[in-house]
Amino acid sequence: MSRHLEVREVLRRITASARRLLGAEYAALGVPDDHGGFAQFVVDGVTDEQWRAIGPLPRQHGVLAAMLHETGPIRLDDVRRAPAFGGWPEAHPELGAFLGMPIVDADADEDRDEDEGEDGPEVLGVIYLANKRGGGGFTDHDEELLRILAAHAALALTNARLYERSRELTLAGERARIAHDLHDAVSQKLFSLRLTAKAAAKLVDRDPARARAELAEVARLAAEAADELRAVVVELRPAALEEDGLSATLASQVQVLDRAHTADIAFAADRVRALPQAQEAALLRVAQEALHNALRHSGAGRVTVTLAGTPERGAVLRISDNGRGFDPGAVRRAGRHLGLASMRDRAAAVGGRLTLDSAPGTGTIVEMEVPGA
After folding, report:
1. pLDDT of amino acid 335
2. Burial environment of residue 196 by CB neighbours within 10 A (0 to 12, 13 to 18, 19 or more)
3. Does residue 197 register a pLDDT over 90?
4. Distances (CA, A) of 194 to 74, 189, 203, 212
5. Which of 155, 193, 253, 373 is surrounded by the most beta carbons within 10 Å?
């Protein structure tokens, strides 16, 4: 559990581990929100089709709600006979033997000021198990095992929350930086563009030649502003990684670029597994940099992006174009890097490697491989 830093993945691991460890038919883990429902609710032992048929996430009622206000376990021979039992949706599986264990943040209780008037430790979530395999109910030994698992789960879940919070703060800082860059770069170019357009309008009648020169400057400034805006959009896109994953995020960006440029840009993915977050972010950044180079410098008519899984559970990203190509050695000697050093640094930082293959007249291939988890 502790190897995973995303909260959703930690919850999934806890739930699957609890079900397997105690030999339960069904397992669930609920994290409460502040509005009478669950912020997250993860299940194990239920198929996707069954879960969709059950309907929306449960509310905090019945036995589920009772567990959120307890710091100890609840063990029942038949959950349907519990005084707090409130039923379940029609498609819900039938549950009998039941064991619930709160995931408690004991450290928060120790750190809390006694004057704050809090009742006890914070309940981060609750593990629910039902239907002991082989029949019968859950035992004292099962309860003790689940208590130990819940203690480890509290640490893993707290660490994952802290990690995600730090990422949120980093993202907020990054967005502030981008907003600053947007103001400094794009706003200034648009201001210059407006002044130049006004000057051109005044010169149309009395000095057409100068007016044409000013209009050419307008076109140049507009193109630069468009490039800056595209760069800002690309900078903001990584937030989609968390929700959509690497393949979907790359596919979306390629689709946007394909509409915005005359080059034909295509994307294909094959057997790609979920990768550690840092590796997915690095792959996305390298793809963005390589696409930017191909579209701005190569004169390519076609650019292809592929992402493929490897037998070692890693992935290979490949960006190829049919542009004019270049001599990498000559580029380095001229002091132009085309972001190559940055791409290599990103690859190395996540345990991957980056290779580049190009020559004048042959196009360019940028390839990055990461080892996975």
Report:
1. 46
2. buried
3. no
4. 70, 9, 15, 15
5. 253
Whether the pLDDT of residue 201 is over 50: the answer is yes
Helices (H), the chain: 7-22, 48-54, 62-67, 106-111, 140-181, 188-203, 208-236, 239-260, 277-297, 328-333, 340-349
Band (pLDDT 50/70/90 cuts) for residue 167 is low
In whole angstroms, give the CA distance from residue 289 to residue 299: 16
The answer to whether 166 touches 7, Cβ cutoff 8 Å, is: no
User: Are 294 and 303 spatial neighbours (Cβ–Cβ below 8 Å)?
Assistant: yes
pLDDT at 115: 46
Q: How far is it, in rounded angstroms, from Cα 182 to Cα 227?
A: 11
Give residue 184's pLDDT band: very low, low, confident or very high (50, 70, 90).
low
| 249 close to 207: Cβ distance less than 8 angstroms | no
Torsions phi, psi for 49 (to 5 deg): -65, -45
CA distance 184 to 273: 40
Classified as helix, coil or strand, 34 is: coil
| 252 class by beta-carbon count within 10 Å (0-12 exposed, 13-18 middle, 19+ buried) | middle
* Look-up of token digits 């979306």: 252
pLDDT category, 75, cuts 50, 70, 90?
A: very high
CA distance 124 to 157: 8
Strands 98-105 and 74-76: what pairing? antiparallel
Closest listed residue to residue 6, CA positions, set 233, 311, 251, 279: 279
Nearest-CA neighbor of 275 among 305, 217, 317, 303?
317
Q: What is the pLDDT of residue 172?
A: 65
Which secondary-structure segment (H or E) carries 131? strand 122-132
What tokens appear for 190 in the block?
């648009």
Q: Token pair 């996305």 is at which residue?
A: 284
The Cα–Cα gap between 39 and 45 comes to: 20
Angle at 351 between CA 169 and CA 306, to 5 degrees: 90
